[in-house]
Known about the structure:
Elements: E1 4-8, E2 17-20, E3 32-37, E4 40-50, E5 65-66, H1 74-87, H2 91-99, E6 110-116, H3 126-134, H4 142-149, H5 153-161, E7 165-171, H6 190-204, E8 209-215, H7 221-234, E9 238-242, H8 250-260, E10 265-267, H9 273-284, E11 290-293, E12 305-311, E13 319-320, E14 326-327, H10 328-339, E15 342-347, H11 352-359, E16 364-368, E17 379-384, H12 398-409, E18 413-417, E19 426-429, E20 446-448, E21 453-455, E22 462-464, E23 478-481, H13 485-495, E24 501-504, H14 512-523, E25 529-532, E26 545-550, H15 564-576, E27 587-592, H16 598-605, H17 608-622, E28 628-637, H18 640-652, E29 660-673, E30 676-686, H19 691-699, E31 709-714
Parallel strand pairs: 8-15, 8-16, 9-11, 9-12, 10-11, 12-15, 17-27, 18-25, 18-26, 24-25, 26-27
Antiparallel strand pairs: 1-2, 1-4, 3-4, 3-5, 6-7, 13-14, 19-23, 20-21, 21-22, 28-30, 28-31, 29-30
Amino acid sequence: MNQTxxxxxxxxxxxxxxxxxxxxxSLARGDFVFAPIGKQMKLGVVWSLxxxxxxxxxxxxxxxxxxxxxxxxxxxxxxxxxTARYNGASPGxxxxxxMRNYKALDPSAVVTLYxxxxxxxxxxxxxxxxxxREGGPxxxxxxxxxxxxxxxxxxxxxxxxxxxxVAESGPVDPxxxxxxxxxxxxxxxxxxxxxxxxxxxxxxxxxxxxxxxDGVTGSGKTEVYFEAVAQALRQGRQCLILVPEITLTQAxxxxxKERFGAEPASWHSQMGxxxxxxxxxxxAQGRCKLVVGARSALYLPFSNLGxxxxxxxxDTSYKQEEGVIYNARDMAVVRGLVSGHSVILASATPSLxxxxxxxxxxxxxxxxxxxxxxxxxxxxxxxxxxxxxxxKGAYISQPLLDAxxxxxxxxxQALLYLNRRGYAPLIICRTCGEKLxxxxxxxxxxxxxxxxxxxxxxxxxxxxxxKHCPKCQSEDSLASVGxxxxxxxxxxxxxxxxxxxxxxxxxxxxxxxxLAERMRRMERGEIDILVGTQMVVKGHNFPRLTFVGVVDGxxxxxxxxxxxxxxxxxxxxxxxxxxxxxxxxxxxxxQTHQPEHEALVALAAGDRDLFIGVELAMRDMLGLPPFGxxxxxxxxxxxxxxxxxxxxxxxxxxxxxxxIEILGPSEAPIGRLRGLYRxxxxxxxxxxxxLSKYMQAWRxxxxxxxxxxxxxxxxxxxxx
Length: 720
Ligand code: ADP
Ligand code: ZN
C-alpha cells in the first residue's frame, strides 16, 4: 500500500506537504512526526492521510519517524485551519504558536524532591526552622524550598542530613491541584442565581452556544460565570478563562482559589519557559482542568474543553497585532464551534458586535442590571471646559478640585484618570519650535520626569532629557506641552499638600509584584489620590474609592478609528465604575471640550441604549461592523518609494467582486515604525461577502520583494 501523509510544519508555509509513509509506520491525524524539509529534519504534524494510487509514481520524500507522544487533538487541527483561513494567516505560522512549547511533548524530567519527615531534626537552627515553615508546598526541589524560605540551598541539604526532610523522586513539573466545583462559594443574589442558572443550562446542553453576560460594573459577573465553570468541571471537562493581560494578577487568581479551592493554572506573556512547559503538558494531557490566561492561552492544546469565558470581552488587548493577527474574542467563539461547547462573553460594556449578535438572537443575552447589596452605580456628570477652564498651566478644573476635597475630607479616596504615561506628551523648543522626535519612528518623544528621560512609547526608545535643543542648541529652551499622569499628580499634590498622591501606570508598576503592592496600598486606604492610566481601569475593587475624575474625556475621540466613540464610551463607563463599589455611593466627573458628543451625552444620562442606538444607526448607514466588514492591508519596507510601488501593485491586483470598496493606499498615521515605512489600504465589504476568502485570494496574487511585507488585518482594531 502506498500511503501518503500531508505534514504541516510550524514555519511560514501556507500548506501541508506530501510525504510517503514508510511501510510498517502506522500514523493518525495529529501525530507528531520527523520528516526532512530542505536539508533539515523537522518536527511536523500529520494533517491528513490518504492511500492515493495517483501518488505512487511521484518521488516523495519519506517520513522518518513518529514521535512517541500524544497526538494533537483533531479539533485543534480544525481550529488551526480556521484561524489561518479567517485571518488570512499561514497555517504553519498558526501551528507555530501552538507548538512553541514543543518540549512539553516529552514527559516531565524526574528530579529529587523533598518533604518534611515529620520527625524533629537533630539541630533545629532558625534557618532550618524557616525551611520547614515556609519551604512548602511540598514536595519541593531544594532550590525552591530554599528560595521560599529565604535561605541557601545548603540549609535544605543540611536539614536532610539532620533528618528533618526526606527525599523522593518526582516530576519536575508537578500536576496542578484539582479545582473542586462544589467548594462552598459566595451566596448569590436572586438575580445572580437566575443568570448563573441560565449559563449552567447552556453548559449542560454540551453543544456550541454563545452567551453574552452583560452586567453593569460590580454586578458580580465573575461570581456568575463561576457557576458555569463549576458545571463544566462537574462534567469532567476543561475550562479556559481569558482575561486581559493586566488583570491577570494575584488578586484575580485568588478569587478562583476561593471559589474552587485550588489555584488555577495561569498563562501570560511574562512567564518563563519552565512554567509554560508545565501548563502546556498538563493541558495536553487533559489533567489540568482550569486555566486562566491571556489571549494566547486559546492556542493551548486542550483535549477536552467544555467552556471558554472571555472576561471583559470588549477589551482591545484581545487583538494580537503581531505575527498571526487575530482577535481572541472571535477566535474563542470559533473554538467553541469547532469543539461544540459553550462560550461566555462577559462585559459591563460589551462591544457593539456582541450586542448586535445578542439582539439578533445569535448569542443568548444574560443581563445583570444592578450591583448586589447596597452598592449603587456611580453618578456621572460632564464638566464643560469652556465653562470651567482650569487655571493657566493647569489641567484640573475647579469642579474636580471641589469633589476631591470633599471626598478626601471624609477620608475617602479619589482617582484621577488620564490615559497618558509620563509627564508631558510633547517636548518643544521655545526658541526654534523643534519637537523632539523618535529617531526611527513617526512619534513624538514623551517626557518622563521620574526617570528624567524622553521616551518613544511605540518602540521603547529612550534617552536622557537633553539640556540643549538638538536643533538650535539653545540652553534650557525645551518646554513640556500637555499633561501626562506625572504632571497631573504634581498638580494634585500642589492643590492638596497633605494628601498622599501616587501614580499608577505601566512605568510605576512595571512588574506584577510592584503593581500588586500598589493595589494593596490603595485597598487599605494608604493612598488618598491615585492618578492612573488604563492600568487602573481593569478589574480592581477599591472599597473606599468614591470619586473618579476624568482629566480628558476627549482623548480617545480623535483619530481615524471608526470605533472611537464606542471605545471612549466603554473606557469611561469602566473608569467611572471604579467608584462606589461597596456601601458608599460614588460619583464621576468627566472634563470635556465636546459635551455634545453622543458618547458623552449618553454617559452622563446613564443611557446606554441611547448611545448604542445612535452608534448602530451610524454603522448601518456607513456599512461598518457589525453591518459590514473591514480589513486593512499594511505594506512595510525600508525604501518609501518601493513601499509605494508595492502598495500600488497590490491595489492593481484586486480581484473583481461585488460589495467591496477599497480605500487608499495612503501613508499610515505612523508612516515610519522602527525604521520601516508603512502604507495602508482599507477594504470595506458588505456583510454577505466572505472577506477572509477574498483577501486570501488577493494576497496570493502578489509576492512582495524580499524584506518587504504585506500584512493582512481582518477586522482591524488599530488604526495607527
Ligand atoms: P463584575 O465582574 O461584574 O465587575 P465582580 O464579580 O468582580 O463584579 O463583583 C464585584 C464585587 O462584588 C466583588 O468584590 C465581589 O466579591 C462582590 N460580590 C459580587 N456578588 C456578591 C454577592 N452575591 N455577595 C457578596 N459580594 C458579592
Ligand atoms: Zn531649538
